[in-house]
Write a structure and sequence with these properties.
alpha/beta, Rossmann fold, 8-stranded mixed sheet, two-stranded antiparallel ribbon, 9 helices
């Protein structure tokens, strides 16, 4: 039974990292006039009310987006992300946190497209309702990997595929690499951005090594861990593994990491930006 709801975790430190990377890639794609497609594998509900029971129960957004909202950092990729969140909260305070589909839709041009797969019935209905009048957006009630088969390749040959399972099931870890390989056969010209949690360092490193050993080309690893590695403490950090990243992304994220470390991390937290070639 599918039970995971991102509404409990929206706007937390992991979302901050994921969405900064997402914004940076989309802004890079927009530098050319040619249209592109964003494909979102685990789209969720689209946006999340700060006052909701789910967000107030965990309060995770307080240690994420709330720590950045009133700061102008001077780092382009962070300030673009924060400006977008503020634009979606015109009342002057944080009332709604945008999920990845709303972030994408807010950045797309008229000629660009967004396609989303979401299996949870409630979140699918919320997402479908939100984009009902937006002809740029396609929403399907599909498992993520079924969505690859049904929706790739898209109409446009440039794009971003955002992959962010909950990793609550072992199948999410084991199934991701073959799913990625299948998707890349269908849509080889895309950038793939894969989110992953840091729960146990050995498991995280083993997960990353699978992609390196499979000789997935052009890998960039970006990680932000607010707490020191410690198995049993829950999620101490998270990362993004990016396939075919824009050539500017590594530099931009290297500039962003000191700011994120200062804003989000405990004194013994850590960050990482690393290009992977042969060894993880």
């Amino acid at each position: 039974m599918l039970s995971y709801r991102h509404s409990y975790h929206a706007g937390n430190f992991a979302d901050v990292l994921k969405h900064i990377v997402q914004v940076a890639i989309i802004e890079y794609l927009k530098k050319k006039d040619k249209p592109f497609t964003v494909h979102d594998t685990h789209a969720g509900a689209g946006s999340y009310a700060i006052a909701s029971d789910h967000m107030q129960k965990t309060g995770e957004y307080r240690d994420g987006i709330a720590r950045l909202l009133d700061n102008r950092t001077g780092v382009g990729v962070i300030d673009q992300y924060v400006a977008l969140v503020k634009k979606l909260n015109p009342v002057g305070k944080l009332t709604e946190y945008p999920g990845s589909p709303l972030i994408s839709a807010s950045l797309l041009r008229e000629q660009d497209r967004l396609q989303c797969s979401e299996l949870h019935s409630t979140d699918f209905e919320l997402l479908q309702r939100r984009f009902a009048d937006d002809k740029r957006v396609r929403v399907e009630k599909l498992d993520a990997w079924q969505g690859f088969k049904a929706m790739l390749p898209p109409q446009h040959r440039r794009g971003l595929v955002l992959i962010d399972p909950s990793y609550e099931m072992e199948a999410d870890y084991l199934g991701l690499l073959p799913a990625l390989q299948m998707a890349m056969e269908r849509f080889s010209t895309a950038t793939y951005a894969i989110w992953y949690p840091v729960l146990d360092r050995n498991r995280t490193e083993s997960f990353i090594r699978r992609f390196v050993k499979a000789e997935i080309p052009n890998l960039l690893r970006v990680e932000c861990c607010p707490r020191p590695d410690a198995s049993g403490r829950g999620m101490t950090g998270s990362g993004m593994l990016i396939v075919n990243p824009p050539y500017t992304l590594a530099q931009h994220m290297a500039q962003a990491m000191p700011v994120l470390k200062s804003a989000l991390c405990e004194p013994n937290g850590h960050t990482l930006v690393k290009e992977l070639t042969g060894e993880a």
